[in-house]
Amino acid sequence: ALPRDLEGRHVVVSAGGTAEPLDPVRILGNRSSGRQGYALARVAAQRGARVTLVSGTTAALEPPAAVDVVGVRTTEDMRSAVLDAGKDADVVVMAAAVADFRAAAVADFKIKKTDSDPDAIRLTRNPDILREVVAEQVPGRLVVGFAAETGDADHDVLSFGRAKLERKGCDFLVVNAVGGRTGHNAFEGADNEGWLLGADGSSVQLPMGSKAALAARVWDAVAERLA
Ligand code: C5P
Prior knowledge:
8-stranded mixed sheet; decarboxylase; 12 strands; binds cytidine-5'-monophosphate; 5 helices; phosphopantothenoylcysteine decarboxylase activity; alpha/beta; two-stranded antiparallel ribbon
């Protein structure tokens, strides 16, 4: 039987990608399937948490049982949903792949290839939701980030991850090694691997396995810290 170590806790998990409109028919998006975030939400609910899953663009996934799903598409919508649900949360996990840029202005009409220069699409930087959540400094609330890093060796991925954890200021960071050494596609596959880094300097290797198994290891560490 699963531990009920998240009973009475509210956890917010973001999953999938964000999609930024360029015009009424086109988007800037990414290939995140949402599988890791959905697994985190499902496992948290099975362990007794009240779960809000802020779901961006994903593959066709079954919504997890007993989870509140808030569907979003743009980064701005994901930001509002995460900040809103995060107000009374014990844990916020940003597993989503957020678009770094969006169109500076969304065209009202379909951009025509004949009368527009490809360079005419101007982009602007999106807000960093994870950093905003951390900046709120809600006492007792834990914040978990994700990072996909490429590197030729474990120590590269670990040192990039450690630097990112410090830059973002989160309590935990899950680092997935993508491409490079393993060539493993953490985005679309059913399996995942990496490290769980803690702000206390800890690092736990997360062996290759199902996204549910990886989720369970993350919740083990989070539940221990909440206790
Ligand atoms: O900076 P980078 O995109 O590598 O950081 C990844 C982490 O930051 C993930 O947890 C992701 O959900 C979060 N993030 C965010 N808002 C952004 C970009 C990333 O919350 N605009």
